[in-house]
Design a protein that fits this description.
It contains 11 helices and 8 strands. The protein is an alpha/beta fold. It has an 8-stranded mixed beta sheet, with helices on both faces. Helix 9 links the parallel strand 7 (212-217) and strand 8 (238-243). Mean pLDDT is 87; it is low at 278-296.
């Protein structure tokens, strides 16, 4: 286990949850996507934890959380279980950061209120169907599903700089799915990738009066950059940053850029701290909306 996790009960099974930082500090919840785990946030958590209470669950059927054979593993079910877990942890208001289908979970939680900032990273959204790349991976599921082949393929397709994912880090993503029960849960989770639950929330996103940051890899093979632009148009207080030369896994392709960017945005927009330049510190990138009439 790469970091100590606590066990949090939910109606469908226990979640393994990273819960670190000052318990009295403003909380930020990090929600990974399908096929990964809280390990996705390993470079971001140390930046955030001195300032915030950082909560990073392994979603049900993922990572070190329970992997029941009959649990619903769709986006809406993950929303319900995470809401329950946050209640168990005494968290009411929070910032939310979601990657891939974890971004869908974040959107569902955000439109219910009790959110003060929202960051979406290469996220599912709207009624966008599964991409050809995801469908190709899904076709590779045979019987219970070869989790290792799926995860390796996911990173091969989803990273522009595949060499930046070290073998030991890849093994950390693979390890939770080595036994048969976990492999069954993984196959079910992979087949449950479905954004249709988000079809009806666009109007509610448009009413979401909180700061939002949309981060996207320009070369994302799973979710095209047009989704990022549409999210930026719908969310009234959104800033959109598209990173050239990066794929779906921004925190693997460009961690030294993306993690400080998220940290500084949260400091400014969530904690409301003024920026003071410190020699040798991260360079702050100011993000804003594209002026009307520019671009495509």
């Amino acid at each position: 286990m790469w970091i100590e996790k606590r066990r949090v009960p939910t109606p469908a099974g226990e979640l393994a949850v990273v819960d670190t930082g000052d318990p009295e500090a403003p909380p930020v919840v990090l929600i990974h996507g399908s096929g990964t785990s809280s390990f996705l946030w390993r470079r971001l958590i140390p930046l955030l934890s001195p300032w915030m209470r950082v909560i990073a669950p392994d979603l049900l059927g993922h990572g070190d959380s329970e992997k029941p054979r009959d649990a619903d593993l769709r986006v809406g079910a993950h929303r319900d279980l995470l809401r329950h877990a946050l209640g168990e942890l005494g968290v009411d208001r929070r910032a939310l950061i979601g990657h891939a289908h974890g971004g869908g979970v974040a959107q569902l939680l955000a439109v219910e209120g009790e959110v003060d900032a929202l960051c979406l990273i290469d996220s599912i959204a709207f009624d966008a169907p599964a991409s050809p790349a995801i469908l190709e991976l899904r076709r590779g599921l045979d019987g219970e599903g070869p989790a290792e082949a799926w995860i390796r393929g996911m990173f091969d397709l989803g990273m522009t700089h595949r060499d930046r994912l070290q073998d030991a880090d890849l093994e950390a993503f693979l390890l939770p799915y080595r036994d048969e029960r976990a492999a069954v849960a993984f196959a079910r989770a992979a087949r449950a990738i479905d954004g249709t639950v988000l079809e009806g929330i666009e109007a509610r996103l448009a009413d979401l009066d909180v700061p939002a940051l949309i981060l996207w890899g320009e070369d994302d093979a799973f979710f095209g950059v047009g989704i990022a632009e549409r999210l930026g148009e719908v969310l009234p207080r959104a800033a959109v940053a598209v990173l050239p030369g990066c794929g779906h896994f921004l925190l693997e392709d460009a961690p030294d850029t993306v993690a400080p960017l998220i940290f500084q945005w949260l400091r400014s927009q969530y904690l409301k701290h003024e920026h003071r330049h410190e020699p040798g510190g991260p360079v702050v990138v100011s993000l804003g909306r594209r002026p009307q009439g520019e671009g495509g």
